[in-house]
């Protein structure tokens, strides 16, 4: 088939293209191709670096989502049988078992072999009726059939023989407290032993009376002799008590009744105060345990209910036990509750053999499963919380526990949590405390609010000054002045943020503390002074103004602003006396209820605004300057004045670039660390009061990361904060780019 003839025009074009390629040096082609590959590789490397950072953050956060694991490890037979309660050492090598026949037996947890045995009642027929264990105080206790309570302190000493760890149990002398002088059996009791030899026991006697016996031990520092004294109080109780509990500080006595009443006696001066009774529900209370810190009380009931209570301040400044959380019901009556010694977790065992692991602060049921032994009578956490031991009548079972991050849920991170010692649920960040009893508070909401608060107050200053300064510089100021002004403003961006934070915290904040009235006075005074200055400038003879460069009026207005600021500071004290009764801070607190901190959001707004202004100015000024001059000339030619041209032609055309400048300034402000770290109180306060401090996500990471244990919950929560900051800036930049593209399409046809 014949090919159509090529037209002369196409042939000439093809020949010119071939000739151009032939004339292009090969070296230039190679250089262009290499440059294209280098630029592409650089862009790809940036994308991969960002993805790598994101993947690393997600990898550190991922373990927070892991489910706890509980697995049965071993079960051993107990010598003699009839076990009542058990206490284990921190290495899970030895267990002290209190048996119903009145013996304290120490066995190896690996094979059940006996280490030692102690008869608590030699030569008597006394037997134990009910038993209790206090892992935190390291003692076992039991009530007897002759009206006494026996408390046996147990310690496990660790030594090393070469590389071999040796656990040596040390059983202290038993403490006997007589609660019923008539020798009648005691079924339900509570006991506590302190480190100074003091002991307390409480029980309901057969006649319904609550008896509280306390032993005080005093040592004579001169002779070394120890003297003991006993005190006894009896209180009538109109309820049939089913379980009792004394806290480790021996300041509170709790009890549960068969009718579902929860009772609380403050032990002021060692004597039970007026009882405070609260209805926990229609079913009998069968188990009570205090979580670490002795504030939160876990209540188990006959119908399987599990709830957490703690004292809450009422309107009359009294404290009452308040039901805070309810956990899923068990199918049987709660038989035993074992609290962890270092966090707010606890195990619960019911009559049906269901075992559950719960966590109070995060309100989570972490695990449920069948108990490895039927008829369990005692449940205890290992000291390191890596295992739980369940004792039945004749066996001891060990369950291994892996529960690294029980505190973390979405509700705990972003929602309100009712923490111990608080009057209501709140958003709180407080990662550490002074004691091991501390309850970590890991809400990121105050940090997010602080981040947005600092960004808002800084942009409140930076956006108007940066955008309008760029507009004036590019459209009104004479080029002779612009050549000096632009480099001066851009040099501001090179100032280290740590220097700005240092100046803001140590120099600006103390001066601003006394200068707030002057700052408030500037809000109306400076605009009025600008208007007055403008009127004065226009009143000058046209011949005089014509001899000056266009834009030279900026020097005059700088002098006007300086004079206005000076006048505001001179009038600060009279204005404070007139408007605020002589003291602005006292007026603020009494009138609005807002407090005043020296390092506050106003200080941060001024300091961080100073850091953000150069960025917004530089990008916005380029956007104004890149508006085609023919648009400006055409507008002026059609009769519009300079102001109309700038506001109706230049500003809409430059709006995509201006929006980009604002968003980049937003990203700079939201990620700022050193200024907010040094110029605020760095307290995670959740309000928008400009005279309060705050804490941002970035500053929180800088403050907390040196003290966070690697791999711990706090360590990983800081990566959650980093992910939140990453996501926030990514979303803002994405939305900003979409808006910028939309503005560019809209005004590209001007």
DSSP E strands, number: 32
User: In CATH terms, what is the architecture of the domain at 444-710?
Assistant: Orthogonal Bundle
Rg computed from alpha carbons, rounded to a whole number of angstroms: 38 Å
Gap between N and C termini:
52 Å
Largest sheet: 5 strands, antiparallel
CATH class of the domain at 444-710: Mainly Alpha
Helix content: 25-40%
Beta-strand content estimate? 25-35%
Question: Which consecutive residue ranges, at least 5 long each, have pLDDT under 50?
Answer: none
What general form does the structure show?
A: elongated
Count the helices. How many? 16
What is the CATH topology of the domain at 444-710?
Answer: MetI-like fold
- Given helix and strand content, the structural type is alpha+beta
Mean pLDDT: 86
Could you walk me through the main structural features you see in this protein, from its secondary elements to its overall organization?
By secondary structure, this protein is an alpha+beta fold. The chain has a domain at 444-710: MetI-like fold, CATH 1.10.3720. Helix content is 40%, strand content 27%.
Provide a compact summary of the structure.
This protein is of the alpha+beta class and about 750 residues long.
